[in-house]
Amino acid sequence: MPWQSPISPGISWYEATIPERPVYPALAGSRKTGVAIVGGGYTGLQAAYNLAKSGTDVTVIDACRFGDGASGRNGGQFGTGQRAWAEDTEEALGHERAKLLFEMAENAKRYVLGFAGEHGIDIEFVPGQLSVGHKKGLETDYRRHVEAMAERFGYPHLSFMERDETASRLGSDHYHFGIRDTGTGHIHPMKLLMGLATQAARTGASLHEQTKALKIEKKGGAIVIDTDRGTITADRALIACNAYIGNLEPVTASHVMPIRSFIGATKILSDHPDVLPGGESVDDSRFVVRYFRKSKDGRLLFGGREAYTADNPRDISSHIRRQISEIYPALANVEITHAWGGSVGITMPRQPFCREVMPGVTSIGGYSGHGVMLSNYCGKLYADLVLGKQTELDLLKALKIPAFPGGMRFRSALLFLALSWYALRDRL
Ligand SMILES: Cc1cc2nc3c(=O)[nH]c(=O)nc-3n(C[C@H](O)[C@H](O)[C@H](O)COP(=O)(O)OP(=O)(O)OC[C@H]3O[C@@H](n4cnc5c(N)ncnc54)[C@H](O)[C@@H]3O)c2cc1C
User: CB under 6 Å to ligand 1: residues?
Assistant: First the structure.
């Protein structure tokens, strides 16, 4: 029986189709370490791998199993740049900073592909991404985006798609236009996660699943982390819990909000060769973005449904099937074989959050839906920071990320209202 994450609903198609994952032992009693990392997704494990590789004594704990958060269950799409479009960032922060943030994301793309290549991890990379418009009124913005990326950000891989090209690449005439990005693609997220954990263990990181951090504090000169399996005393710590932070650390919790997103996998679509014949991944212009792609074995992996409260929707499959049928009417009754969800960490400006939340303790997350490449790279950059190098994390630290309004008590309710309003606008 495939493993069911205790913190994210449903068994993902990834989980159901990979070989059994290695089990890493829970922490047994108290220990001292150089760097303690809380959270075993891409951020935490990349930091651990890179630190251990350079000879640093590093310990990772995860409350569940590695990848039980977002890293093992996401849509697998790299995207390009940060979540916010580069020209919007340019307007807010000026050209120089916007370009550096964009280049950081390009470095992230290269880093992940290089890491997987170097270690022979088959992440099933497929090139190509289509960003498609569901409202005619957005066409000018999309055309300008292609121009801005080529002219001001030096990114030549985008081309504008008229309606006909969009329809033939999607196998659907649901969308009005789109952008084709040949400089990015999509991967099998769980294979990356598993390969990463293996490499972190191989380089000497001490890896512990089923070990929950209960409290992090500075005592004397050390960082002390109380867990349900013993106490870790460290020189420095990284909080890499992202959307799953809960009440562990209040600064992160007030700046990074969880939004729950759900994915369904259809049966193998052997009768529908017209659906995404080029194998690209797709994201659309809705506020509640729909994102989909074909798996290597020919299923449609379709994400779209979101939830802003802790309750799980009653029937993820029906909801996903309804969304699929709006785009692909011929799939109105398609069988959904797997349905699952997870929490995406977003920030107010949709830019990553990186802050020293107490002396010696850094928290990184809030990639706002672009975390597949960014979280891996930020984990690596954290390791560089510990090793005394100047890193692009300075760019993130300099961002003014405001806390969500409403404080710990009311912010979920306020966010629920705001996001529900934007979601409603998708339908107008
Ligand atoms: C359904 C879904 C679809 C997505 N699709 C895409 C996509 O297509 N493209 C993209 O770029 N991004 C996507 N994302 C976002 C992306 O997956 C994340 O940004 C990325 O995986 C974040 O990695 P992370 O290591 O920072 O956090 P996570 O992988 O979430 O890891 C956090 C870990 O912290 C652990 N933890 C929490 N609290 C504690 C504690 N107290 N003690 C110990 N451990 C603790 C959790 O168990 C968890 O394993 C998606 C996310 C979801 C949920």
Answer: 7, 38-44, 61-64, 68-71, 73-77, 79, 212-213, 240-244, 246, 248, 261, 263, 291, 303, 341-344, 365, 367, 369-372, 375
